[in-house]
Amino acid sequence: MNKKEVWKSYRFPLILLAGIVTGAIIGAVMGKKATVLAPLGDIFINLMFTIVVPMVFVSITSAVGSMLNMKRLGKILGSLVLIFITTGLIASVLVLVTVNIFPPAANTTISMGTAEMGEATSIGSMIVKSVTVNDFTGLLSRKNMLPIIVFAIMTGLAVAATGGEESPVGKLLNNLNKVIMKMVSMIMKLAPIGLGAYFANLVGEFGPQLIGDYGRVVLVYYPLCLIYAVVFFPLYAYLAGGKLGVKRMLKNIINPAITAFGTQSSVATLPVNMEACKKIGVSEDISNIVLPMGATMHMDGSVLSSITKIAFLFGIFQIPYTGVGTYTMSIVVAILSAFVLSGAPGGGLVGEMLIVSLFGFPAEAFPLIATIGFLVDPPATCLNASGDTIASMMVTRVVEGKNWLTKKAS
């Protein structure tokens, strides 16, 4: 590739990255005064969140509604669940090995003494609340992404059963989808400025917390995320599409990764992921289903961070972090907390509450991992969101066969 082709391919990611780096520098120099830039970042984030609920509902409903081949739909959903679970388990094994070799709470000056964990909370009601709401108005909030997805799939099945994409409703949904994606492209033009301002505010306000007692957590977690991205992402892409799959992934994964790192939200990154999958060659009916569901259910980065937080609390309270039961519970809690974390930028406080509650840690454990949550959220969300694009490639491989990429235009 010559310089013009390189610039054409990577122009927007480079501008986006430059905006974030500039914002980080401004935040470091100005300190808490950088909060004056917060409104610019908030405007961009709010625009992304405003568009995401109609985008998810319309994209899934139109994709399912136009899919008269129910066998293909079943194959997409089945392979999606299998891939999400498999990659999550791989991430769990990797982080469990890591935190046992490099305990994140080692040498910390934080001392909470010893503690006996309380009784674990029942998770049944949490599962019900994760997939349903008790009023239609609840479907209008990005805080209820799984219920929105469930309702969209049901609506799509009803559309498919009453004429599909050629029905009046089907045509309306397809036209709405085009309008919404055009709005997304308009909003994304503000991304370099918006993310730069957002990051300036974050670094200015919380930068000093990157050192001190939480330094070891950062030193354990950030390299862990890098290893996962460098080793497993290319491996997944290779399994999905061979060498060409890896090439396409590397070319198009930068935008979602940078956007996710800056916004700290898989939901806010959905529009960028849609565009990346289109350029890679993933069929729209697949990406329109996998990406919204992945933004809520496919959380490899959050699994890594949740287990790191759990291991940190075990160390702080001087409880041995060993045993198959403990590891199994850690994986289950990590996945559940990942569900809660989806769509929430900068922290995931409810997810941290879930960890403390389900493991029965005392209340004073919450502020400890809430601080860690902020420190590890950017790379965790980066893995979550960019991993959704790769998961879409893997689902396409299962649904359309090993030669799917050679049939697509680059």
Q: What tags apply to this protein structure?
A:
mainly alpha, 15 helices, globular, 74% helix, 410 residues, single chain
Structure, described:
74% of the residues lie in helices and 0% in strands. It has 410 residues and is mainly α. The longest helix has 38 residues, at 215-252. The two termini are 14 Å apart. Mean pLDDT is 81; it is low at 343-347.
Per DSSP, the total helix count is 15
Query: How would you spell out the order of helices and strands?
Result: HHHHHHHHHHHHHHH
> Structural class given helices, strands, pairing?
mainly alpha
- Enumerate the spans where pLDDT stays under 50 for 5 or more consecutive residues: 343-347
Strand content: under 5%
Overall mean confidence score, pLDDT: 81
Rg (C-alpha, Å): 21 Å
The largest sheet, given as strand count, sense and whether it forms a barrel, is:
none
First-residue to last-residue Cα separation: 14 Å
> Which overall shape is indicated by the principal axes computed on the Cα atoms?
globular
